[in-house]
Predict the structure.
Amino acid sequence: MIARRGNPYMERSALRVTLIPVLSVLAGSAMALVPVIATEPIVPPFGLMMLLAWRLLRPEIWPVWAALPLGLADDLMSGHYLGTAMILWTVAFLVLEWVDQLLLWREGWIEWAIAAVALPALGVGAWALSQPGDSHTSVLTILPQTIGAVLLFPAILRLTAALDTWRLKR
Amino acid sequence: MAAPRHRRRGFSRRVQYGLFAGYVIAISGILLGAALLLVARLDPRAFGTLRGVVVDAGALFTGIGRVGVEGLHGAGDSISAYVEAGSQNEALKRELARERRAVIAAKVIAAENIRLKKLARLAEHLPAPILSARLIGSTPTGQRRFATLSAGTSEGVRPGMTVRSAEGLVGRVYESGIFASRVLLLTDGETAVPVKITRSGQAALATGQGDGTMEVRALIAGGSPFRRGDLVVTSGTGGVYTPNTPVAVVTTVRGDRAVARPLADPARADFAAVFPIFQAPVADLPSQPKP
């Protein structure tokens, strides 16, 4: 924060610093475009996982409303009704603000535990909001991708941390 | 590590107002999202242009990747074909002989069918397919079951049209961009197809369950109308779907309901044909009243 401007040793490209978190979340959402044709949801929600990992790692770079446009992009790519991820992700951000005040200690295990609660909760939320009125889809269809998402989350945290060091490298 | 204390308001008015504005925008964004969801409930085709543009943009990426995936599929298939060549050859020869006899029988039946239809003066207005296009992708992360078709409004594909492959019914066009469109698969919860059982002719309704299967319910309650292995085809009731298109095979029977697996596997189907909406022919035109 001190003497960032005018000091050649502290200068970073502002574009890289701000854009990398956003672009990596969008790339995660774009995993919905992988060219496999699935008759059941099998690919974990990578966009949400990237966003959670960034939010847990760097809470200070995200304003609370940042989840709105990212959620809109995810809705458009995943074919859900517009508003599904917008609502759920913003609610998750507000809840995380409260969790930040609550927790006095942070560790990799705690972040995994937060994600292990958040991912199933948001999965059930997405199921509830995206189904048409007379749908017969069971809530259990989200089980495979949610288990995969929770198990993969530490790897996503690592990836985010690597991206973060590259982002802040001078 | 102690938790980072961000969002510390301190004495700076600027920081305080900034944080407060963030919460206000977030809450109003949630309300906006709720309004968007309500619009989607009332009019599922809302924001069609925006969604169409995203379908088009996504199809560009997916189409390129699809080539690689198909190459991998092909390589695996040809390796296993070499391994099983000898035994497969024998089995295929036997199968070919059996199929030949079946084809001859089928030709006789087809000829007889034409003759009988002429006798009964039954005219069928079955629609011809508009075009064939590739199924290039799907939405594997979402809770809805969509596939992406590489044809859009520029080729005349409109929402509501039915899509089928060589094996059977695939689904309906849900929304279309200019050169790509989304197909609502049979397994989606929104799908409801009026069907009949080929064995008994019993009318039923097949709905998607979101997990790769469909639920078949008889229109008449009671009894046990389904058996394992029953073939389910469209009945053409109410229009939309052309009659006698294969839909699914019953895999499990639970009382007067059954779970069926769709015949057309969209992951295997290279090409799918798009059909216009079927309209059942009027049996007898009403006679003009005499003046």
In short: Chain A touches chain B through 65 residues (CB under 8 Å). The first helix of chain A runs from residue 14 to 29. Chain A has a mean pLDDT of 87. Chain A is about 65% helix and 0% strand.
